[in-house]
């Protein structure tokens, strides 16, 4: 009879053999794809990517090797960096997206922070076993969830949310005025990244779930601290090992300090979600247009009552998805306005010409500079640097131009290959955006000029594009209107991009995200 240590050793040996065989097959199939020589047999390109300016290597690889580049991950795991337009359209489009789901490691990350392990129950006809829309896979399951959520993020719903966005924006502005009054000064330095996070979480709480977090009071918040602490970490060895290895060994997310933060975040999100659901059931606000109302209606219409675990998983997903990208974008918008005073003044004139809080339709038609500022910020500072996918099956993908040295118009991507679509490269490519692609120029989105360049990938595209894009843009615009109408901003610090979960700003040389701006009453 085999002993327990022997069984473990045999299992480990089988896993190593399986990994080695898959690695051999993949590398052989991609042997004709060019790429840099791996700087490390153990870590591949991961160390270089982690310790340099976010996305900087992608530009160099494209110039040197072309639009499809093979790189090595930890232990030689093959990855492809893809900037080929035809390949991207196929991978993100209806024909290919379900063959290229999120990588297994990413799905495990979302499961551990947002999902649950509850067993199958009747409510899974609406939500797949505790999986939120960010990480549910399969065409049928994803489309089912999207249909359920879509009404809450539709244009009519966002139009109804505008008074909420304006109210929250005004509260934030009032807090800044109080800070000035307390110090007896008309200009003070404010660390805006924290306030951006508070705004993002308060907005989604009110608009999506009819719940008030009271974050704009400035008081400590366990939920905010947990969300921020999970990803806003300094570059250290532990964080590097976690990022480098979770692509192929997702179980690493269970261990160490990072594992503790994952569990804490899940707990905090779960406690908040359960409270919101209990409060909503008592209030019975199913007549509203919020996401919570849609869930209440689905609950009332279903033959079997909703399973609380499934509801909590979906609510965790929405809260998390609405927090980091929006807070990051708010910070970068304010930064670009701070270092571009002429654009800031032009925007203030545009905003000041409208004395009332603009409706969603007015924001779309009467504020072209504001629209341009937001889109240009998303172009230069996409919250998500890389769009990650994994080949679920071996798939042939079309190319706009052959791999150098070949005449092949298609690329066969082996099952298990990790794909990176570097959004920053696609949105600053001079071939697509012109010679001023790296310059902040909001007017490229005005006067019909936007018809001459591609659409943004900041919210992805195709069937799995961000369902909350319209919601996010509306709330950000409402906040910028409130702030720029009352304040001017400038930056006296050197700011650099910092990759946590999203791309955040930070004072150069510091460990955590930060954006201290001089804010002056106008």
From TrEMBL:
Keywords: Heme, Iron, Membrane, Metal-binding, Monooxygenase, Oxidoreductase, Transmembrane, Transmembrane helix
One cellular component term from this protein's GO annotations in UniProt: membrane
InterPro entries documented for this protein: Cyt_P450 (IPR001128), Cyt_P450_CS (IPR017972), Cyt_P450_E_grp-IV (IPR002403), Cyt_P450_sf (IPR036396), Cytochrome_P450_monoxygenase (IPR050121)
Cofactor(s) this protein requires: heme
GO molecular function: heme binding; iron ion binding; monooxygenase activity; oxidoreductase activity, acting on paired donors, with incorporation or reduction of molecular oxygen
Compartments it resides in: Membrane
Pfam families assigned: p450
Annotated positions binding heme: 466
Pathways per UniProt: Secondary metabolite biosynthesis; terpenoid biosynthesis
Similarity field: Belongs to the cytochrome P450 family.
Protein name stated in the entry: Cytochrome P450
Organism whose genome encodes this protein: Mycena indigotica
Lineage, highest ranks first: Eukaryota, Fungi, Dikarya, Basidiomycota, Agaricomycotina
């Amino acid at each position: 009879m085999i002993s327990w240590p022997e069984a473990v050793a045999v299992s480990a040996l089988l896993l190593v053999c399986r990994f080695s065989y898959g690695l051999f097959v993949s590398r052989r199939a991609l042997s004709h794809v060019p790429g840099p020589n791996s700087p490390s047999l153990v870590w591949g390109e991961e160390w270089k990517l982690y310790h340099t300016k976010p996305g900087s290597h992608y530009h160099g690889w494209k110039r040197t090797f072309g639009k499809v580049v093979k790189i090595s991950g930890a232990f030689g795991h093959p990855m492809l960096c893809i900037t080929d337009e035809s390949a991207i359209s196929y991978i993100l489009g209806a024909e290919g997206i379900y063959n290229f789901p999120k990588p297994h490691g990413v799905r495990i990350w979302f499961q551990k922070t947002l999902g649950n392990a509850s067993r199958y129950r009747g409510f899974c006809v609406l939500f797949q076993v505790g999986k939120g829309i960010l990480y549910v896979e399969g065409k049928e399951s994803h489309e089912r969830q999207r249909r359920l959520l879509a009404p809450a993020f539709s244009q009519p719903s966002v139009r109804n949310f505008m008074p909420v966005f304006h109210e929250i924006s005004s509260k934030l502005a009032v807090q800044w005025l109080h800070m000035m009054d307390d110090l007896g000064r008309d200009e003070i330095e404010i660390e805006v990244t924290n306030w951006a996070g508070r705004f993002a979480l308060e907005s989604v709480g009110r608009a999506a779930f009819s719940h008030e977090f009271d974050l704009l009071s400035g008081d400590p918040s366990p939920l905010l601290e947990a969300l921020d602490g999970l990803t806003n970490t300094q570059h250290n060895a532990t964080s590097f090992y976690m990022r480098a290895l979770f692509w192929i060994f997702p179980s690493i997310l269970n261990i160490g300090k990072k594992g503790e933060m994952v569990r804490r975040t899940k707990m905090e999100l779960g406690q908040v979600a359960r409270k919101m659901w209990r409060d909503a059931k008592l209030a019975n606000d199913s007549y509203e247009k919020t996401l919570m109302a849609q869930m209440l209606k689905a609950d009332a219409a279903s033959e079997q009552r909703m399973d609380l675990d499934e509801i909590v998983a979906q609510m965790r997903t929405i809260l998390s998805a609405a927090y980091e990208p929006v807070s990051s974008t708010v910070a970068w918008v304010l930064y670009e306005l701070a270092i571009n005073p002429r654009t800031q003044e032009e925007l203030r004139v545009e905003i000041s010409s409208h004395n009332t809080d603009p409706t969603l339709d007015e924001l779309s038609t009467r504020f072209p500079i504001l629209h341009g500022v937001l889109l240009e910020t998303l172009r230069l500072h996409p919250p998500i640097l890389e769009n990650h996918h994994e080949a679920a099956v071996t798939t042939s993908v079309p190319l706009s131009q052959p791999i150098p040295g070949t005449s092949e118009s298609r690329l066969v991507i082996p099952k298990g290959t990790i794909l990176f679509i570097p959004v920053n490269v696609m949105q600053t490519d001079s071939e697509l955006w012109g010679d001023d692609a790296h310059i902040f120029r909001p007017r490229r989105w005005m006067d019909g000029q936007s018809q001459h360049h591609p659409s943004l990938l900041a919210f992805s595209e195709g069937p799995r594009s961000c369902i909350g894009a319209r919601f996010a843009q509306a709330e950000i615009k409402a906040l910028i209107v409130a702030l720029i109408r009352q304040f001017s901003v400038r930056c006296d610090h050197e700011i650099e991009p910092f990759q946590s979960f999203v791309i955040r700003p930070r004072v150069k040389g510091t460990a955590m995200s930060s954006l201290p701006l001089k804010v002056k009453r106008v």
